[in-house]
Amino acid sequence: MSKVPVIAVDGPGGSGKGTVCKRIADTLHYHILDSGAIYRVLAYAALQSGTDLADSASLEKLALSLDLSFVPADDGVLTVLSGKDISSQIRTEETGAAASKVAAVPAVRKALLERQRMFRAAPGLVADGRDMGTVVFPDAEVKIFLDASCEERARRRVRQLEARGKPADYEKILAEIAERDHRDRTRAVAPLKPADDALVIDSTGMSIDEEVEKVLSLAREKGLCS
Ligand code: C5P
After folding, report:
1. 3-class SS at 85?
2. Which of the listed residues 39, 113, 150 should we mutate to test ligand 1's pocket, taking the one with most ligand atoms within 8 A of CB?
3. In terms of C-beta density within 10 A (0-12 exposed, 13-18 middle, 19 or more buried), how is residue 168 classed?
């Protein structure tokens, strides 16, 4: 195979993409791109600097100048911005909602394109996002679109928060998920949708093991692993 293989996994938040991607990357010893984290970092930097989330030119400038790195650590990967670990700060609902706003700005998506493509390195890449198979890696060997109903994703989020001892209001979370989905699916540039050649998996009622197996079996079919 001449080019570095990519497994593109797209889908809405809460579909289990993150966990599935991590498992696939560990199994195949591939690199991983968490593209959502990049949009979250930009949103965090914009909020911190008081940048207007609708100011395209300022956001583009900020996106091009982000001093961002992902640093492997014992319990996962740290997100480091200008030398500061902001891993937990980018996971708040506020940053997630702001990420979805800055991600709808065409100049931002363009500014972040090359940064994402640079993650493509041997022996291979698992790319987690919304437009991995449609825009960032249209030549990916494997394209998956992992979906699940809004209700199922809200229930998962509630369980996640409760497991961390945090308060979780199902109705509020459901409304936030529905709003973010709507913005991601209807934006003009790189809207959240399956690539024409993607395998769509509805993960509602499926276990993570089953999801991982489905992706791996497609990777096997494409000759990426045995
Ligand atoms: O996946 P995650 O929830 O971390 O992504 C945060 C937001 O970033 C999403 O709601 C989406 O608006 C945006 N995003 C995107 N394209 C990607 C990844 C994330 O627009 N490839």
Report:
1. strand
2. 39
3. middle
What residue's CA is closest to ligand 1, atom 12? 100
Give 81-135 pLDDT, tens digit per residue. Answer: 999 999 999 999 899 999 999 999 999 999 999 999 999 999 999 999 999 999 9
What is the token pair recorded at 28? Answer: 């195949």
For residue 1, report the distance from its CA to the centre of ligand 1, in Å.
30
Largest pairwise CA distance in the chain: 50
- Mutating to test ligand 1, I would choose from 35, 93, 126, 192 the residue with most ligand atoms within 8 A of its C-beta, which is 35
Nearest to 120 by CA among 140, 146, 134: 140
Give the whole-angstrom CA distance, residue 71 versus residue 57.
29
The CA R_g of the chain, rounded to the nearest whole Å, is 17
| Residue 129 in contact with ligand 1 by CB distance below 6 A | yes
d(CA 63, CA 15): 27
Q: Is the peptide bond before 123 cis (omega within 30 degrees of 0)?
A: yes
pTM of the model: 0.93
Tokens 């825009």, residue? 135
